[in-house]
Specification:
The structure holds two protein chains of two kinds. Chain A is of the alpha+beta class. Chain A is built from three helices and five strands. By secondary structure, chain B is of the alpha/beta class. Chain B has a single domain, classed as STAS domain (Transcription Regulator spoIIAA, 2-Layer Sandwich). In chain B, helix 1 packs parallel to helix 2. Classes of the chains: A alpha+beta, B alpha/beta. Chains A and B meet through helix 2 and helix 3 of A and helix 2 and helix 3 of B.
Amino acid sequence: MPGNDNQKTETRLVLHSQLAELSRVWPWVDALAAEYAIQEETRFAINLCLEEALSNIIRHGYRGQPNQAITVDFISAETGLTFTIEDNAPHFMLPEPTEQLDSQQPAMPNSIQEFKPWGHGIHLMRRFAGSLAWEPLPNGNRLTIRFIITQLFEK
Amino acid sequence: MQISTEEMEGGITRVVLDGRLDIEGAAAVDLKMNVIAGSSKLLLLDLQKLTFLGSMGLRTIVVPAQTVHRRGGKVVLFAPVAMVEGVLKASYINSIIPIHHELRAALAALQ
């Protein structure tokens, strides 16, 4: 539900490939949340997925090269919210999901020392987004993240 | 991201994390968390005021917890909000570091 036509939030965010740029994402998402009445749980999931995706692009896609462009486009529809992220980095392919989401989960560690404190980003994205899709572009990648506007969290 | 500590009875160190444990937040508190882990054996991580937890934040919690554990200590996570707890459970953190929503139970788990 769009808010005041005079104060529409820009639905495209352009970032440079530096981790410090991620601080611009939160205010943008907050503004979208206010304008489109996005519930807190969904906003949390959006911020989580965008941070994971964008940090991966910056650190692994662009391998620390600064001043490369990343665009994030937002679309709101009756079926949900879509964020499309495009970059000009070398192709990165998401691991193919299997039918059972559970099989994508990291193995449960047997002890605290077994726990690997890295590599959880993609799993968290799959868990908290309604859907995740990657496709190659001629000179980069497109990652589409969709959120269904329902309760996302189960205790 | 703010971090504060309180020494409680029984040698328990209560660490209060206040804010967002995103990439920037993790960078702001990582060093202090590791220093605390090097000197405390009973750690209560108070997550009541933690409003966001990303994958980098998981490291900020787990790496110090691993340090405390190697030193023969214990760690508990206290009262994360629902969304933060969702991240902890999705990452199986709850299977290696107990989560308690009642302070008495959290303190008892450290004995």
